[in-house]
Structures are given as C-alpha cells and as structure tokens.
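Subject: Protein record for review, amino acid sequence with backbone structure tokens
Concerning: The relation between a protein's sequence and the shape of its backbone.
How to read it: Take the token row as a discrete description of the fold.
Enclosed: The protein record, placed directly beneath this head.
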Amino acid sequence: MAAAAIVAGCGSEPAPDAGGADVPTLNLGHVGHDHHLALYVAALQGQRFKADYGIYLDEVKPQEVYDLVDGGKRLARLVFLKVGGGSQMPAAMSRGEIAIGLGGVPAVAKFADGGQPFKILAPLQTDGDMLVMQKDSPLVDWPAFVQAAKAGGKPLKIGYKAPTAVAKLVFERALVAEAVPYGYDQADTQTGVILVNFGSEASPIPLLESGALDGFVMNQPAVAVAEHKGLGKTIAHLRDLPPKGKWVDHPCCCVAATEETITAHPDVLKGLLKVILLATQLIHTDQALAIDCASRWTKYEPAVEQASVPTVTYVAEPTDSWMAGMKTWAEMSKDIELFTGKYASASPEAFVADVCDLRLVRQAAAELREKGLLAPP
C-alpha cells in the first residue's frame, strides 16, 4: 500500500505540528467503498470544513495522509490505509497495523468476542444491502424468490462475501423465517438455496456474468455496479425481509478503535468523530455533493454512486434505532452461535454495553451542538 511506505504502523514517529510540538501519527483503516462516505466527504471537503466549522482534515497526500486540525491546532496526523472487507479490518487492527478502523460491526464484534481489546466508537451507516438476481431472471420480488426456492427444482445459487457479512446473516435468517431449505454444498440438488462464499476481496460480478451464481446478497455499491453493467437486478432490500420490521436499520459499518488508542488519544478520536458527524450531516443536506465525493473517492462512475448512495442510511450517532438494531443483531448472532467467547452467553444489552464505547461520540455531538454546528438529533 502506498501509504504504508509513509508510515510503518500505529506506533510511528510523531509528526511535528506548526508550533513545534509533536503530534501522534495514527493509522486509520478503511475499506474504500461508499459505506465509509462520511470519512471521504470530510477528507475531500477539508477547506469547506475549515471555513465553516474550524475542525477539518488538512490534506497532506491525497487519499492517504491528512492532518486533523481543530481551531488551528493540529491534533494528529492520520494515515489512511485501505484494508480488506469482512474480517480483514479487525485482523489488521489485531496485528497493530492500524489503530482506528472503519468496517463491519459483525467482524469487529467477533474479534472482540475472541478477546481482542476493540471497541465500537460510533456507527457509520445502516441498511444498503440487497438481494440481486440475474438480469433475465423471472424472479422479480421476494415472494417469487421464496416460491421458486420451495418449488423443488434446480437450487438457486446465491453468493455472499464473508461468513460474518451482515447481508449473509440477515438473508439466512429470512430463509429460516420462510422455512426455505438452504445449505452450502454445491453438489446438493435437494435444497432450495445454496449459499456460495465468493470471498471478501472478490467481486460477484464475474460469477454473475458467467452464470456460476443466480444472484448474490451484498452491500452497495456492488449492487449498483451489477445493475449499471446490465448484469443484475435488485429484487429485495434486505431491510424489508422477514420477520417484518426486524432488519430495518440493521447495523453495518462502524468506527472502531483499540482500547490502547482510546486511552492514549481520546482527544484525537473525539476530533475525528466530530468531522465524521459533520460529514454525515452534509451527506444528508447535500446529496449531490455526497454522490460526487463518493465517485471521486471510489472511482466508480457517477451513475453508480447516484444509484448507490441514496439507498444507504448514513448515521454517525448511536440513535435509538441503531441501538435497537445492535440488540437485534446480537440476538441473531446468538441464534446461529456466532460467538464462542465472552459474548456467547451475554444478553443483547450486555453485549452492546461491552462492545461499544460511545462516550466520545456523544461528547463530540454535544460540543458541536453547543457551537451550533450540528443539528438537533
């Protein structure tokens, strides 16, 4: 990775600030798709944030190195490292390669369950997961999919990107709710749905194009890419799958950090959360700008991000709905025995209380509101 040549890890040499004092250099891992749009908006709109808010990301090297500045004072140098999806972000954090990570709630929670000292600091977004089928598939909606899966004909092969991916877990629970038989053995001709792991670093598009998959469940912008290429069509938003209402605002990506980072650099993390809060607000008030920033960062065509960004619910504060979604997800994880460590017997409330440390984002939101910079919740 290009940025890795600039800074070799979380414990890098501190960067001198304008006044001569040292500030910490922290590596921040992200996946690179538009679920992390708030970070990219903040990075690309640094001068606007400087003028409007006084706290901003000052670009040192585009898409790689930024100084976090508040009121003219540099708080830290942040090195952005693009890490893989699924478990690869928390794996990088466990190896000490990054101190702060943007990635999926399930993967972070799974590592924390195994004893890694990770905490979720804030949400980034919810929803944005769909069931996509071949463009010429006769299936047009969820009832048609269920009917076909139960009909006893050729099994429907549906791809997913990782065992703990939110889309895969929600989809499985919906199949159970509909009493649709499913499995993982591609040689099994007696089941309704066969789930195929195509890998977190691979795209389902070639498999869709070759006919190896009948469809896939995944987050944006892969869905919009499949539609833009004329290869797939969305037949259901996973938030709408049964049990009815259970998956609305299901948690997906979050901001996480190691406990060591939280203890050593609370002001840096609070500053970062402030720019993410402000960027999330900007996404809501200026969607055209958000789509432009998404396209500039991800390099997808504007039409792809035009289709993708509006289907994702961007949220940076732990709302009641997000907290409820976290507890629902904890219940689901217990049902499928996802946890084998400290969360295996924990209640949903105890799980959320332990895996999350929301103090800094709540402080950040309160301080921004005191200055009139952040709208009421």
User: Anything to note?
Assistant: The domain at 3-126+252-370 is CATH 3.40.190.10 (D-Maltodextrin-Binding Protein; domain 2). The radius of gyration is 21 Å. The chain has two domains: 3-126+252-370, 129-240. The first helix runs from residue 37 to 44.
